[in-house]
Amino acid sequence: MGVKRRQTDRPRSRAIADESVVEPPSRNAVTSALGRSVFLSQITLGAVVLILVLCVQIFDAQSVSSPSFFIGVAVIFVVTGFAVILPWHVIGKNAAIALPLLDIAGIAFIRHGEPSLGAGVLFVFPVIWMSTHYGVWGAVLSTTIPTALLVAGALADDGGVSLSSTPQLVTIPLILAFVATMTYQTRKRVAAHRVLLRQQTLQLETVLERSRLQQRLLDSIFNTVNFGILAFDANGNTTTSNSFHRRLVDPNGAGPSGIEKAVRDVVYQADRETPYVDSERPYFRALGGESFDGIIVWLGEPGTEQTALAVSARQIDDGHGNWVGGVIVESDITAEINALKERDVVVAAVSHELRTPLTSIQGYIDLALEDDAVGDGTRKMLEVALANSDRVLAIIADLLGAASGADPAMTLTFADCDLSELVRRSIEAQRPAAERRGIRLAFDDRGAVPLIADGFRLRQVIDNLVSNAVKYNVDGGLVQIAIEADAAEAELIVVDTGRGMTADEQSRLFERFYRAASVRDSPIDGTGLGLSISREIVLKHGGDIRIYSEVDEGTTAIVTIPRAP
């Protein structure tokens, strides 16, 4: 079933549907223009004839006695009266041609009655009129009729055509033909320009309509997005703001909501109580021509319900490097910040609840180790359990530190240790998990690599890297571990054949609680803290940790540690 198009969706003019089509002027416009043209053309001729009659009466009234002169004047005045009083919008253009024809007859009578007045030049008026409004045939008719009347008048005289009258019989028709030709050509040019102007007008209307449509589309987009947009010019005046921004800064809609209010209102820093000084407030910085990303501010007075905004700004120039304003984008991140806070509370609570039973477990293991009746094999297993419980307690402490929102209070104890031995113990601890999935652990053991470091913390780093290489590997995969060392530093290299990571995932690997999207919904467990804590341990040793990865090819982790602090 087809979809009907609403009437309101149609273009407002044919030009919008087809810019090459030029609509003719309406009938009312044509008839109105005809009436004005008839009036102006005839009233001009009537005024000239009136002036001629007045001059004759003032300067030489007695010499004018020919009835033909007065008949011609009467004809002109009567025609002028018709031009004024008749409804030409009803009579039409074809009937209006009678007026210039009667004018030609009247002018012929005037000239015949008083040839000395030079009234033949008045033929120019009907010539211009007919050439303008009736095209080629009007120009020809308006030239040939006066010429015929001039010749007929000369032949009607008693003397006939004389040598003295010949110049006028030639000159006047030539002048009339020239005027008719120029008028016709001018009319064509004006008509062409009028058509071109109408086309350009319709094209401009089309562009304007499209601009209005784009403006409405942009307004709809701006007012649909769930972040605030505020644009301003070089003078700091608001040029555009969307409804989300207005709701943010003025929920009640009772006052201004532009850059003026954003600058005037106090915003607070991360603790929700300390106000930003003017020089650090994002809105002042944006007005000063600065661009920035993700500055967090809090709206609302301390002790009341507050809103957290991540504010970014970009500057706009005119294409020639001249600053003309900027745009500010505000995202409401209150829910995200509250969710992070709640997550930290949960992590802290769970970690605290784990610490209590684990401490009890350690106590009982210590008691068991003090019992002389425990066999060597059992004692070895208990020692492994005690060592792993110590590591779990350290990890819980790290979790509590991360959940507190501050850097964990990590203290390093430097002593002699063997990096190769730490790697061997870590491999043994991860071997059961690797064997369950058919993953082979290969260590290129080149002997002892002594160094002065916190062995407990380095073991935490190694365990994290090796366990990640196993967890995120494919079944039947391979994990290769090697150590390269010189006199100054040692380099631990862990390579796996796992799923790998994208460039975006790699850029966030060391963020606390970050887990890649590809494993977030998988059964692979993790907190997203391991690499963050490992990086901090390595940095506190004065070293560095680097991760290289390709999707579906695997990951390489390289840890560089000084052999002495």
Structural class, from secondary structure content?
alpha+beta
Helix % is 40-55%
Mean pLDDT: 81
Query: What is the 3D shape?
Result: rod-shaped
Spatial order of the strands forming the largest sheet? 2-1-5-4-3
Largest sheet: 5 strands, antiparallel
Tally of separate helices: 18
One letter per element, helices H and strands E, the order comes to: HHHHHHHHEEHHHEEEHHEHEEHEEHHHEE
Query: Which parts are unreliable, with pLDDT below 50 for 5 consecutive residues or more?
Result: 1-31
* Strands, total number: 12
Compute the separation of the termini in Å. 79 Å
Q: Can you tell me the number of structural domains?
A: 4
Q: Per DSSP, what share of the residues sits in E-state strands of 2 or more residues?
A: 5-15%
Give me the Rg, rounded. 50 Å
EC number: 2.7.13.3
Keywords: Kinase, Membrane, Phosphoprotein, Transferase, Transmembrane, Transmembrane helix, Two-component regulatory system
Organism: Compostimonas suwonensis
Main location: membrane
Overview of the molecule:
The chain contains 18 helices and twelve strands. It has 565 residues and is α+β, with helices and mostly antiparallel strands. It has helices at residues 14-17, 27-60, 67-85, 88-91, 93-96, 98-113, 124-156, 166-222, 243-249, 259-264, 282-287, 334-369, 376-403, 419-436, 455-471, 503-507, 517-520, 530-540; strands at residues 228-233, 238-241, 292-299, 307-317, 323-332, 415-418, 440-444, 450-453, 478-485, 489-496, 544-550, 554-562. The longest helix is centred in the middle third of the chain and has 57 residues, at 166-222. Helix 3 runs antiparallel to helix 6 (98-113). The radius of gyration is 50 Å and the shape is rod-shaped. The two termini are 79 Å apart. It has a five-stranded antiparallel β-sheet with strand order 2-1-5-4-3. A five-stranded mixed β-sheet has the order 7-9-10-12-11. The chain has four domains: 27-203, no CATH class; 228-332, Beta-Lactamase (2-Layer Sandwich); 338-403; 415-562, Heat Shock Protein 90.
